[in-house]
Amino acid sequence: MVRHGAIAAATVVICDQLSKHAILHLFAGRAPDDHVVVAPFFNLLLTRNSGISFGMFNGVPGANALVFSLAAAAVIAILFYWLTRVDNRFLAIAIGLIIGGAAGNVIDRLLGGSVIDFLDFHLGAWHWPAFNIADSAICLGVVAMLLEGLVLRRTSSEVKG
Fold first, then answer.
1. Residue 117 bears catalytic tag
2. N or C terminus of the chain with fewer C-beta within 10 Å?
3. Which residue among the candidates 16, 108, 120, 135 is catalytic per the annotation?
4. 126/32 Cα distance (integer angstroms)
5. Per-residue pLDDT reduced to its tens digit, 27-64
6. Structural domain that includes position 126
7. Is residue 54 part of a domain?
């Protein structure tokens, strides 16, 4: 199952880094507050987050990059250890999504001191905090883990029992 998780993680890292490279290219030379309207509810923009989720603890880019990268590396190591113990493909892929998302954001922190966010969903003037492919993969991985633990595992044990 490690292979399935590793493929999921690598796919996320590649897609995340390519999308961030494309966004940097798209916004090169534009005003800092510029955005691209894609749909009435969705924009592309370029923002950098030196904090953690939703911009919490923004403010000290150098120190935050090191601290949050070390914390993410520890989480990645724990998740990889767990991945070596998993015998369920669905859970292995879920863990791989989280590993890949964490790794994608660590790459940003180590190379640029902050995470590049660019997906801006909104309803009128209310905007969800900007995020990226890595953040999406982490969320999908967590939801998949919850689904596996709360629904799929129960269903399979009920079938056995």
1. yes
2. C
3. 135
4. 20
5. 999 998 899 999 999 999 999 987 666 555 566 555 66
6. 2-156
7. yes
Which structure tokens are listed for 130? 């900007």
The number of distinct structural domains making up the chain is 1
46 inside domain = yes
Tokens linked to 104: 């994608």
- The answer to whether the beta carbons of residues 62 and 110 sit under 8 Å apart is no
36 φ, ψ to 5°? -115, 120
Any catalytic annotation for residue 34?
no
For the residues 146-161, what does the mean pLDDT come to? 71
Q: What is the DSSP string of 58-71?
A: TT-HHHHHHHHHHH
Q: 161 lies in a domain? A: no
Output DSSP code: residue 130. Answer: P
Residue pair 118/44 in contact by the 8 Å Cβ criterion: yes
